[in-house]
Task: structure prediction
Amino acid sequence: MRRSLRLLGSFRYEQTDPAVFYGGLARDSAEMLSDFYTEVTGRGLDGVTVLDVGGGPGYFADEFAAAGARYIPVEPDPSELHAAGLSVPGAVRGSGMALPFRDNAVDICFSSNVAEHVPQPWTMADEMVRVTRPGGLIVLSYTVWLGPFGGHETGPWHYLGGDYAARRYRRKHGREPKNRFGVSMFAVRAADGLRWAERTPARVHTVFPRYHPRWAWWLVRVPVIRELLVSNLVVVAVKP
Result:
């Protein structure tokens, strides 16, 4: 419960102090991947290659380096890569929908809060499976549109439609939102991720709501409720 409250509380800093928001998310991500990778392979992250699809400005790099992993972020937007003034050795500019890596290249392919910013998120998910080696881990975590944070900075008005929420944001703030509906933010449902989990050739290890304690993981099994309360869906899969 403490973990859930800490992660949910950090959302108020997403726009005003990204280092606080992404720093906490980075720690949680490294711990989450370490736990699942140990569960699946019996190994920790030491010496493991982690490909972070949509790694952005590199807030996650230090946490994965501290765990001993070789961390490689992929980001299509050069301004986003350098937004925080951080330098990540080995960072790659490229699209998640056509990852510039060979088949079976990495031990773990990870994406956090990116699928909702991609026009073809399930093409990206398929690419994540492709570049992961057999026996490796795919971890896809994304924000559910009808959850409380689905509209990002335009919420909670996204419940009245993405276009309306964007127009309201422009009227109130006098500028475009960073996440522009239909351009850099899309309505991705929990059901979409579950449908992908059913068809992917990877073996699904678990599906759960990221910001909830384990006793609330049952929420992902209930239609409608999962769209409103899951907030962030995580699909963990193992490449056969």
Remarks:
- Residues 152-186 form one domain.
- The radius of gyration is 17 Å.
- Residues 32 and 92 are 23 Å apart (CA to CA).
- The chain has a mean pLDDT of 89.
